[in-house]
Design brief:
The protein has 287 residues and is of the alpha/beta class. The protein has helices spanning 6-15, 28-41, 59-72, 87-96, 110-125, 155-165, 189-199, 213-221, 231-246, 253-276; strands spanning 2-3, 20-24, 45-50, 76-84, 100-103, 130-135, 169-172, 203-205, 224-229. The protein has an eight-stranded parallel barrel with strand order 2-3-4-5-6-7-8-9, surrounded by ten helices. Helix 5 links the parallel strand 5 (100-103) and strand 6. The protein is globular.
């Protein structure tokens, strides 16, 4: 179909009371697997990459590939910079054609977070791009290198933050965390509901890998529109690669490529189905 803005996909999902998957990718195989799943299910998705991943997956290489894959996909795809840490990276992503950016200033004081985020909103307007920001602290980090703890988003602060920054989507902290959960987290759905009521904009759930399918559905019903999935895809890809390399016979890159694509595809497909299902919560399978 086309490369589209994330705002367009968020509004479409919000109006249909569904969630849209934002799938982190780190190589060609992950891009292929994610697009394959989206096309088979005829469902739009968001391809994204976090700045902390760029040391392994340079933006100059990944960016053009993600954008071109979106342009040639049979479904609408947005391309998003997740957890941008510097204005330089944000601007580079926009120049490469990313249709959405997140400049994560959540570790800064409230007023500074507003000021820094507002600057990104002004920059993104020049490119017609969507802006996501974070308020509160989601636990862990994208690469597991640090953890600032979890601080739930304050609903009243969220209202002020949205009004003063002009963002399109807000990532919330409601007990969720990046990386692998030791046990499934207990999400503060009451806080989520209050944030949704006070802001009215699409909300984003980071740290989606490890949350139960039923909790995904409940979160979507209470205002979550975009759900980030990273760790689960990286883990499934690695598992498939390990299984292939442990199999008998001579191994080669091409079959390894197929294994990595398949691992990503399976994880993305599963989550697309969960985020878009209409069955009652008690009937949703736990993965």
């Amino acid at each position: 179909m086309a490369l589209v803005t994330m705002k367009e996909l968020l509004e479409r999902a919000k109006n249909n009371h569904r969630g849209i998957g934002a799938f982190s990718v780190g190589n060609m195989e992950m891009v292929k697997g994610a697009i394959q799943a989206a096309e088979e299910l005829d469902t739009p998705i968001i391809l994204q990459i976090a700045e902390v991943r760029l040391k392994h997956s340079p933006l100059a290489l990944m960016g053009p590939m993600m954008v071109q894959a979106a342009k040639e996909a049979k479904v609408d795809v947005a391309v998003h910079l997740d957890h941008g840490l510097t204005m330089e990276t944000v601007e580079k992503a926009l120049e490469l054609g990313f249709t959405s950016v997140m400049f994560d200033s959540s570790t800064y004081p409230f007023e500074e977070n507003i000021e820094r985020t507002a600057k990104v909103v002004e920059l993104a307007k020049k490119y017609g791009a969507t802006v996501e920001a974070e308020l509160g602290l989601v636990g862990g980090s994208e690469d597991g290198s640090e953890d600032h703890g979890i601080r739930c988003t304050n609903p009243d602060d969220a209202k002020v933050f949205v009004e003063r920054t002009g963002i399109d989507a807000l990532a919330v902290a409601i007990g969720n965390a990046h990386g692998n959960y030791p046990v499934a987290p207990k999400l503060a759905f009451d806080v989520l509901e209050q944030i949704h009521d006070k802001t009215g904009i699409p909300l984003v759930l980071h740290g989606g890998s490890g949350i139960t399918d039923a909790d995904f559905r409940k979160a979507i019903e209470l205002g979550i529109v975009k759900v980030n999935i990273a760790t689960a895809s990286f883990n499934r890809l690695t598992k498939h690669a390990e299984e292939y390399l442990k199999s008998e016979g001579v191994h080669n890159y091409f079959d390894l490529n197929v294994a990595m694509v398949q691992g990503t595809y399976e994880n993305v497909r599963h989550h697309i189905e969960v985020f878009n299902c209409e069955m009652p919560l008690d009937e949703v399978s736990i993965h």
